[in-house]
Amino acid sequence: MSRNSPGPASDFLRARLHLKEPATVQSPPEPVPLYGPDYKRDPYPLYARLRQAGPIHRVLFPSGVRAWLVTGHTAAQRTLADPRLGKNHALGNDRWRARASIMPEPQHSQLQVHLLHQDPPKHTTMRRLITDAFAPRRVERLRPRFERMAGELLDALPKDAPTVDLVRCFAARFPFQVLAEVIGLPPHLAGRFRREWGGVVAPVGPTDPGRGAYEALLRGLQQYIAEVVADRRAAPGDGLLSRLVTARDEGQLTRQELDSMIFQLLVAGQEPVTNQITTALVALLRRPDVLHRLRDEPETLPAAVEELLRLDSAFELTTWRFLAEDAELHGTRVPAGDSVIVSLCAANRDPERFPDPDTLDVDRAQGSHLAFGHGIHFCPGAALARVELQVALGALLRRLPGLRPAVPEDQLPWIPAVLGRGVSRLPVAFDRSACPHLAG
Predict the structure, then answer these.
(1) What are the record keywords, sorted (predicted)?
(2) pLDDT at residue number 109
């Protein structure tokens, strides 16, 4: 073999790095698995290796779905703004469709025609219906109300337990209370919402032993959404939910679009903020010096929240995107209808954009982190999430002096969600003798 001829090692590297020479046909590389407890606990070493190897890679999800994953910051930003990539599931090819249904038919279409799965012009029309409710000025006016909510939850912490699970007692409750206030979900309905309904976004195959429980959850959620619609139609107000019901009655939305938008508000409007509170707290509990500084210098919280969003985003991966025809994406030929996903977490720790990216630096010059996405699908609730995180972390640090972990970090249960990051339990201890609101 000539010294200029490619050997097996160079063939392997070309396949892994998606290089185009030599011109002979290469077998596609084996996809990189994106699942397992080690990956969910700390995906960043894997993301670093992928970034170093190139901007786009074949990956495998636990459901068996294969996708193209984009990692670096520049590539991620360009992908999120690429007009060739659509979000509508109808663009998916047969290979994707065979495994990737998020909901079982026939329910699939009833809750999945929301903003995340729409392209212009329908996306533009639907998004316009909700933007006013999450406008920064409106959200800022509600900050005092949010602060009272956070305080009331902390006043209600167990008074005699040596440790407290901040997920169960606070992080899983505060975002939903805020959401109900913002969208106009009345108390008699808000009190009946079950957090486990959010689990219907996790795929459960037809032969899975948990399929029956999954379908029961789905039916319960659909019934709840129907009751919300009926309630807001019978007793309309000036909240977002009432406006969406009116839009349906005036022919601007189909019934499936209305139900899907309510579903998206109830799940995407709560669970990511719950998870982001937990990832932020885990990061701060690892770094007591930063925690103490934020407690003593609350004016630094807005910048700290941006850095915490960058460091460990609760939205780890975006939802699917598709090319309508075969095309080049970051130097790689991607077939039409294959799913393309962006790793927001990998982009946010790209050293080419953020020096020393694994360090929590609350004095970092803030830039274009992608925790809320980019382009036309930039999270419409970003301003609300920022205020929620500032209020939540400020209240916790101020009202729970001596806040510290109550279990070793390796005992924290990271959620197995495909797209999200967070812990399902976060036991902490604090100096109760310095908490007059918990006396008695």
Answers:
(1) Heme, Iron, Metal-binding, Monooxygenase, Oxidoreductase
(2) 58
**199 and 223 in a common domain:** yes
Task: Tell me, letter by letter, the H, E, C secondary structure of the chain.
Answer: CCCCCCCHHHHHHHHHHCCCCCCCCCCCCCCEECCCHHHHHCCHHHHHHHHHHCCEEEEECCCCCEEEEECCHHHHHHHHCCCCEECCHHHCCHHHHCCCCCCCCCCHHHHCCCHHHCCCCHHHHHHHCCHHHHCHHHHHHCHHHHHHHHHHHHHCCCCCCCCEEHHHHHHCCHHHHHHHHHHCCCHHHHCCCCHHHHHHHCCCCCCCCCHHHHHHHHHHHHHHHHHHHHHHHHCCCCCHHHHHHHHHHCCCCCHHHHHHHHHHHHHHCCHHHHHHHHHHHHHHHHCHHHHHHHHHCHHHHHHHHHHHHHHCCCECECCCEEECCCEEECCEEECCCCEEEEEHHHHHCCCCCCCCCCCCCCCCCCCCCCCCCCHHHCCCCHHHHHHHHHHHHHHHHHHCCCCEECCCHHHCCECCCCCECCECCCEEECCHHHCHHHCC
Verify that 235 and 291 share a domain, yes or no.
Answer: yes
Same domain, 51 and 64: yes
Split into its structural domains, the chain has a count of 2
Q: For 39-83, how does the pLDDT look when each residue is reduced to its tens digit (9 = 90+)?
A: 999 999 999 999 999 999 999 988 788 899 999 999 999 999 999
Shared-domain flag, residues 341 and 419: yes
pLDDT of residue 101: 57
Domain range spanning residue 209? Answer: 31-438
**In this structure, are 58 and 151 located in the same domain?**
yes
Whether residues 352 and 206 share a domain: the answer is: yes
Per-residue model confidence (pLDDT) at position 25 = 42
Is 133 found in the same domain as 164? yes
User: Residue 28: what pLDDT?
Assistant: 60
